[in-house]
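One-letter codes give the sequence; backbone shape is given numerically. An example follows:

. . .
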Amino acid sequence: MIEFVFEDDDGMVEEQDLESYDVVQPFAWDKNTTQLLVEQYMSLKDAFRDPKVKKKKLWTKIKNEFLSKRHHVTEDILDRKWRNLKKTYTGIKDNIRKTGRGRIYWEYYHQFNEIYREDKTVNLPTTISTSTPLSVIQKLPIKLQPLNEVGPRDLPQPSVPATPQKESSLLTP
C-alpha cells in the first residue's frame, strides 16, 4: 500500500492511502474506444450537422457515455480524435479517386462513408481542370484543287490598306 504524507498550513501531518483517491490514468485510444466514438457520433450525426446545436454539448454527451464505461476522456480529446479520423477518411477517399494507386484498407471506412455520404465538404463534385480554355471548333469540308488548275483569281490577293494612301508622285513638286 502506498501512503502519502500531507502537511497542512498549521504544520499538522496527515497520512492518506492512495487507494482512497480515484487516480486517472492518461487516456489511450484502442480499437474498442475508437469504435465507441464512431458509434456515438453516428447516433448524434444529425445533431452534429445542425448549426443551431452547440458541438460542445454533443461532445459532452459522448464524454458521459465514455465515463459510464470508465474511460476518462475530455471533450477536447474526443473532438481531436474525430478530426484525425475524418482526416484519415478524406485522405483515403482522395487516394481511391486517383488512378494508379492501390486501395488502402481502413476498418472504419464504411462507417465514415455512411456518416459523410451526403456531406458536400467531404464528397466534392468531380471537376475537369485544364490549363488551356476549351473551345468548340466546327470542321467544314475543304475542296482541294490540283495546283495546275488554280487560276489567278484563286491565288491569295494582297490586302488593301484601310486608309487610302496618297501616291508618291503627287507629293513631289
Summary: The first strand starts at residue 3 and ends at 7. The mean pLDDT is 76.
